[in-house]
Amino acid sequence: MKITRCFAVTAGAAVLSWAFAARADAASHAIHNPATAAFAVDQLQARTGLPASEFESWKTLYDPQVGKSHVRLTRSYKGLPVTGGDVVVHLDADGTYLGMSGRATRLDMDVTPKVSADRVVSIAAAKLGKAGSPTSELKIWITEDGTAHLAWQVVLSDLSGSEPYKHTYIVDAKTGNVVLDFDSLETLNGTGRGYHNGNVTITITRSGARYYLRDLTARNFDTANDLGYIFSSTTRTFGNGSYTTTSTNGADVHYGLMKTWDYYEDTFGRSSYDGAGTYFPAFVYRYGTGYVNAYWATGDGYLVFGDGSIDDGYYPLTSLDVVGHEFSHGVCETSVPGGLRYVRQSGGINEGNSDIFGTMVECYAGNASDPCDWTIGEKVVSPYLRNMSDPPADGASIDNFSDYTDGLDVHYSSGIVNKFFYLLSDDAVYGIGSDAAAAIWYQALTNYFVNAETFADARTDTLQAAQDLYGAASAEYSAVGDAWDDVGLH
User: Fold this and answer.
1) Cβ distance 256 to 320 under 8 Å?
2) Which of 86, 234, 392, 433 sits at a 20 to 30 Å CA gap from 410?
3) pTM for this structure?
4) Which fold does the domain 117-183 belong to in CATH?
5) Do the Cβ atoms of 272 and 226 come closer than 8 Å?
6) In the annotation, is 476 catalytic?
């Protein structure tokens, strides 16, 4: 591939450009050669007129594939570090000067601040709305357009709470104006060693010397223990594959939420549970608590996952389908005013909705440790919590409206919806596939379902959704009617 780096700067700065071919298989390595570094500084001074005394060698990289050296130089001015003032000098194998990368901004300024460190900390704290543990450092800050500021770099942070933060403000030391600000927590990939999901790649955040189960990229959530502390580690690895290690269960939840978020966004364009990208935390009970439950906190916007009870045959409730199931209660709550009322028929539809999308998330993830199937919670308890293809097999659920009574637990009456969705997806005669079935269900949930939805309402509304998406004369429309017929809704 070819890489071209060009830097344009304002008056008072030299324009430096560098273009070179880069090899993907190049094995560059650092070398220490004072003579090479000194030569690079001399070349910089000769071509820009900048004082050699302002530059110091930081690292020299030698690329044996192309026979080039790249000398990185840091900069200071009147004893202050210059951020954005670093330069790279490029030399051929024989030491011939090839070019430079960076901004050669000429500096001529008084470095006595007019605004005190205490004052800029107050300015930054007022902007952020919290101060945490503040630090400040005076430096020269060069912006992308080559403009130089005498500035305070103020960092406000608190890494001890349930929502650690680290925010940086660059404040002009002459005027007190904020030049720019940015979140200083770095997002990168880590490894989750889960009990249910195996070894997986997860998005984490680094702050200082520690890594956190925070995903603040396109997603927006944290995974914490039940005391409210976000899982942290001195390495990029979380968990060890054992269900008795709480960070293992945290890694499973974190990965599950990543896949759940991505399923909804990739499939329906829905960002977060509410479609607005809203932040939420997830809390994982410490192992040994014996909490056999997982839930979405209705109205409060957070998730809780229990550690299970091995004595009773329950492993941590942190599997892909369980995570997707609970998140989908949040989707339901923010799609229908007040959600689907959690009682009687609407409650069964509510639970069925979460089973549908918990299964879809499991299938979307494509994880060999937890493959796509029609059971819910099969990784949590043997043989499963519920079976969508055969709901009565669990000994309590129903799969036909003729068996429904108002006193039936909503987890068991959900079998009507589960069997409907299974048939709509997989029936040998009229099944349309789970993707089309999910699209119809989501269309009905978000556009037609109401708080007190009944099973009969759900039939009507999914038929309308199928008509919206595929037309009233479509095979998909007919399949919806057939599937409801087969579970006793005519």
Assistant:
1) yes
2) 433
3) 0.71
4) Nuclear Transport Factor 2; Chain: A, (3.10.450)
5) no
6) no
Report which of 443, 248, 250, 460 is spatially closest to residue 353, judged by C-alpha positions.
443
Alpha-carbon distance 184 to 482, whole Å?
A: 55
Domain 2-105 CATH class label: alpha beta
The pLDDT tens digits for 77-135 are 999 999 888 888 989 888 889 888 888 889 999 999 999 999 999 999 998 888 778 99
pLDDT, one tens digit per residue, over 259-285 is: 999 999 999 999 999 999 999 999 999
Q: Own/partner pairs for 184-192, CB < 8 Å, 24+ apart? A: 184/155, 184/157, 185/212, 185/214, 185/216, 187/214, 187/215, 187/216, 187/217, 188/236, 189/236, 190/236, 190/237, 190/238, 191/236, 191/237, 191/238, 192/237, 192/238, 192/239, 192/251, 192/252, 192/254, 192/255
The one catalytic residue among 54, 325, 326, 378: 326
- Residue 132 DSSP label: S
Distance CA 213, CA 228 (A): 12
Residue 230 φ/ψ, nearest 5 degrees: -65, 135
Residue 190 in contact with residue 166, Cβ under 8 Å? no
pLDDT at 32: 59
Q: Are 254 and 223 in contact (CB under 8 A)?
A: yes
Separation between Cα atoms, residue 67 and residue 71, nearest integer Å: 13
Domain boundaries, the chain: 2-105, 117-183, 188-486
User: 5 falls in which pLDDT band (50, 70, 90)?
Assistant: very low
Q: What is the pLDDT of residue 289?
A: 87
Identical fold for domains 2-105 and 117-183, yes or no, is: yes
Query: Which residue(s) pair with 3 in the sheet?
Result: 20
Kindly name the residue from 167, 411, 453, 476 that is annotated as catalytic.
411
Other beta carbons less than 10 A from residue 49's beta carbon: 10
Rounded Cα–Cα distance for residues 420 and 378 (Å): 20
Residue 196 annotated in active site: no
Q: How far apart are CA 437 and CA 417, in angstroms?
A: 12
Residue 323 main-chain phi, psi, to 5 deg: -60, -45
Higher pLDDT, 419 or 341: 419
Q: Which helix (H) or strand (E) holds 225?
A: strand 221-225
**Domain range 188-486, CATH class:** alpha beta
SS3 55: strand
N-terminal to C-terminal alpha carbon distance within the chain: 62
